[in-house]
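Dear Dr. L.,

I hope this message finds you well. Following up on our conversation about the binding site, I have prepared a predicted three-dimensional model of the protein together with (R)-mevalonate. For your records, I am including the exact sequence and ligand specification that went into the calculation, followed by the structure tokens. Please feel free to forward this to your student if that is useful.
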Amino acid sequence: MPNAISGFSKFTKSEKIEWLLDTYFNDKNAARTLVTQYWNTNEKLQKLHDEFIENTITNYYLPLGVAPNFSINNTLYTIPMAIEESSVVAAASKAAKFWLERGGFKTKVLSTEKIGQVHFTYAGQFEALQVFFESVKPLLISESSSITKNMEKRGGGILDIELRDRTNSLENYYQLHATFETLDAMGANFINSCLEQFAKTLKREAEAHLDEELVVVMSILSNYVPQCLVRAEVSCPVSELASKDIKNPQLFAAKFKQAVNIAEVEPFRAVTHNKGIMNGIDAVVLATGNDFRAVEAGVHAYAARNGQYASLTHCSVENNTFKFWIEIPLALGTVGGLTSLHPLVKFALELLEKPSAKELMQIVAVAGLAQNFAAVKSLTTTGIQEGHMKMHLMNILNQFEATSQEKAQLIEHFKTNVVTHSAVVEAIEKLRG
Ligand code: MEV
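The resulting structure of the complex is given below.
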């Protein structure tokens, strides 16, 4: 077992790497080459990346792909996607093309409210606390003005602050539940700064005016944003679903709806169904420099809002019309954070024609809906493996270090043969004699 290290964060990047090589690696030269080959030769660019986080030793690449032909409210988009999983970008592109020919995606932002809370305990009477809160509320807002003034100038800021009594769930537990409009910013820093100022004012005023002690436990935004909602939808007459892979559109629509209904009632299926949605959502969230962990946490909480984890998409087949839609909470930003720092994030936002946060919410929701459409379409027709393994073929060939010539021959071979891992291995072995 290696010894603990102190002062590691003070080491230079090279010293950090040497310590890692000495401590964990047998072939130090090979490990050093592996790590340093991912350094960018442009020193300025490398320094920028080094400074995004702490203890950086190198860069970790993910491919950035694009899915063209997305018609969203009659505007055409090419959507950037950063993801490691083969077949996701292909599925998005295919779904985009399918719906381009059937009216495209229609979207709407339903609300944009963000939430933050100051959690505190108080052992006195609730009535006294309530009177105190009403008197101190204007001060909470006015003393945050240096933080809120710029946001207010642009039309955002604090929307409201409520006192919430949570003593039924936890002894002496109360909160300031605050709502915010953060416009094109995701708003985490803005909200947290406001909350910490609320906490300061609250504590100071409580010491002066309340008989019992008020203890602030913590002040933090919530990543659960059920009032920051976006909806995306596709629809068409059932007969228009007919395509190369959909020979019987009535049967397809009924089976597709059944599959969505299953995800609405069966949590084991719902989790995988929603995972497919997040394949699309996370990829765009990541490409546009947004916080995918925050989005994931908030979206899954929303999926469980009725007490059981359920599908985020819904489907209806009525009056010969097929309709498929998603409604999800998304707290995204197109200014601040990484958006102006990471060169590829800038590229991704420019590719999307510099969207507002509201526009980005709609694009991201569409990516999720498209991904889910493609997955459920495959699942209820050919099965997922046919398309998935075709896309995964290149990964298997790379595992076996296939040459360009071998790749070309095997890709040709698998155009008419079923791709499985063992079938590819067999084919490579045969080819190599
Ligand atoms: C794989 O990454 C995603 C799927 O499993 C989603 C689904 O089952 O709906 C194909």
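In brief: The chain has a mean pLDDT of 96.

With kind regards,
A. P.
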